[in-house]
Amino acid sequence: MSALTVLRDMQNRPWTPNIGADALPAPNADLKRFYEQGVIEFLTGKRQLTLENWNVWVSEFDRLGGFAWEGAGIEMAEKESYLR
After folding, report:
1. Which of 3, 7, 30, 71 is the most exposed place for a label (fewest CB within 10 A)?
2. Are 27 and 35 in contact (CB under 8 A)?
C-alpha cells in the first residue's frame, strides 16, 4: 500500500475538527485501560455487541469514572471556548 495513496484517500474523507482535544483532561490509567480493552473486545467479537452488553459496558465505564471524566472534559471545553 502506498503512503501517498493512503494520504490522498484520507484527504478526500470528511473530517470532524478536533481542536483542543490534546488540552482536555486525560482519563486515569484504569479508565483508559477499561476503555481500550472494551473497544478491543467488541471489535474482535470476544464480547458480542448487543444493546444489553453495550449498556452494561457504559454503566461500568461511568462507574469507574467515565461519567466524571466526560463532565470534566465538557466543562474544560466550554471554559476554553472549544464548545458553544
Report:
1. 3
2. yes
